[in-house]
Amino acid sequence: MQGARAAVGAAATAPAWLPRVVLAGNENTDRDTLVVVFLRGGIDGLTAVAPYGDPNLYSPSLRPNIVVRPPGEPNGATDLDGFFGLAPAMAPLLPAFQSNQLAIVHATGSPDPSRSHFDAQLLMEYGIPLQPNTSFTGWIAKHLGLVTPLGQTSLRALALNDLLPASLTGANGAIPLADPSSSAFPGQPVTEASRRAAIESSYAAFGDPLASSAQSVLDAMHLLASIDFDNYVPEPGAVYGNTEFGFAMRSLAAIIKADVGLEVGTIDLGGWDTHNAQGVFTGAMSLLMADLASNLAAFHLDMQSKMNRLTVLVMSEFGRRADENVSLGTDHGHGNCMFAMGGHINGGQVIANWTDGELLHPDLQYQGDSLDVTIDYRDIVSEILQNRLDNPNLAAVFPNYSPAFQGITI
Question: Which of 165, 287, 290, 292 has the fewest CB atoms within 10 Å around its CB?
Answer without folding.
Answer: 287
